[in-house]
Amino acid sequence: MHSPDSSQPATAIFCVPDENAELGCKIDAEWRIWLFLHDSYGNTRITNISVYTNDINADSTPPEAHIEIVEDSSFADFVEFVGYQQTPTGKQDENGNWIMVDSPKYRVRLSDTGDTSIRFSSANSSDIGTGIGKFTWSVNGDGDNVQSYELPGSQVEWTYTFRNLTAGENTIMVELTVYDKRDQRNEEPTRVFFEVVGEMFGDAAPEVQFDSIATADGESFNGLESDIINITGTVVDNDASADCDVKVEASLDDLTIFDKSDGIKTAQKALGRFDWQEGLCDGDQYFLTLNISHKYLETEGNVGVIHIRLTEGAYVVDDQITLYTVPRSNEEQGGNEEGSGDTSALMFAGIGALLLIAVLGVTMMFMRGRSGSDQQDSVESFGGVEQMDPVEAYVQQLVAQGYDEQMARQYATQYYAQYYSQQNKGGGG
């Protein structure tokens, strides 16, 4: 630049552009300034000076710290804002009272793996002057000691994994401290508080509402010629999430089937002893079917139990419905007709205070005539095996489905103990 009047000062701007610098100019730049003095006779004198912009002692302003939580999928699924918590600044007012600031507070829910990772960002922290030199993240309340993590000023993201639950009103404090290149730190504390809860926090156990228990013919209060019962109802899932993960299972007499393999469950379903539906949401209806034909006895009443299991995540809720069959009367057969059937009534005792009553009919007894005699023989049928001891038939079926023979025999013996006791009391007449 040229100035014809030596009495007027010359003004210049010195800046080497730098997008990463706070003011947009490189902080450690150097300039050489040359001065040429001319008189009216054409004489010239030359001098120069050097100008530096790296004088860190000129930086008297401390940095400012700012924490942001990265709102990724983990944040959306497991973190929620619950309010603010007051924390002291370390300074006192003119009356000697501690000056407090409000710090945000979040609730962290652990995932099914027992931990939850949260990403933090310090990108909006700033320093006017020398620039940010380093970040220090500290964690207090998660264990016996304060944990500290130091990162360079260029690394603005940091991740922490929560694994321990907080008890009562206790919280975990995460604090960010920012240092500039003069080693000045932010004056106002920058903190975030967390309470950590378990995976099932806020998730109520699922429920089912029984709409009806009826025969396959759709009638609930009449004796029908049906061996099939239908159980229908509605899922009530109080889980705040939108996951459709409720499973409803029904088993006839066998509570252990719920913990068996899928292959055994499929085999039991084919026999009508077991049924299930899964992937149900809140408000979804379910439809389960069971075959109770083997529960009918010719002269005695019988009892069975329909076991119901609801599963959602770690929740498992078991309940049951007791099934009673009404005994059949031979006099109702109407003479010596071969293959004639009869209907009987069924009644259900409900779950808890629910009164679930259904009357079902089934034809179970087949009569065959003997030549030259009016006497009739009854043929016990179990799973399609005629004229075989029902206990042994049941044992064979259970073993074929994968059950241990000893357990199957014990179960079948107990299952038919009442039946044989009643037959012996009747004296065969």
Strand-pairing-aware structural class:
mainly beta
Oligomer: single chain
> What Rg, in angstroms, do the CA atoms define?
42 Å
* Proportion in β-strands: 35-45%
| Low-pLDDT residue intervals, each spanning 5 or more residues | 214-225, 330-387
Strand order of the largest sheet: 4-5-11-10-7-8
Number of helical stretches of at least 4 residues: 4
> What's the architecture of the largest domain, going by CATH?
Sandwich
Order of helices and strands: EEEHEEEEEEEEEEEHEEEEEEEEEHH
Approximately how much helix is present in the residues?
A: 10-25%
For the largest beta-sheet, the strand count, sense and barrel status come to:
6 strands, mixed
First-residue to last-residue Cα separation = 131 Å
Q: How many E strands?
A: 23
Overall mean pLDDT: 74
Counting structural domains, the number is 4
Question: In the CATH scheme, what's the topology name of the largest domain?
Answer: Immunoglobulin-like
Shape type: rod-shaped
Query: So what's the CATH class of the largest domain?
Result: Mainly Beta
Keywords:
429 residues; Immunoglobulin-like; 38% strand; 4 domains; mainly beta; single chain; five-stranded antiparallel β-sheet; 23 strands
Describe the structure in your own words.
The protein is mainly beta and 429 residues long. It folds into four domains: 1-54, no CATH class; 68-197, Immunoglobulin-like; 207-376, Immunoglobulin-like (Sandwich); 380-429, no CATH class. It has four helices and 23 strands. The chain has a six-stranded mixed beta sheet. Strand 7 and strand 8 form a beta hairpin. Helix 3 runs antiparallel to helix 4 (405-426). The longest helix is centred in the last third of the chain and has 22 residues, at 405-426. The model is unreliable at 214-225 and 330-387 (pLDDT under 50).
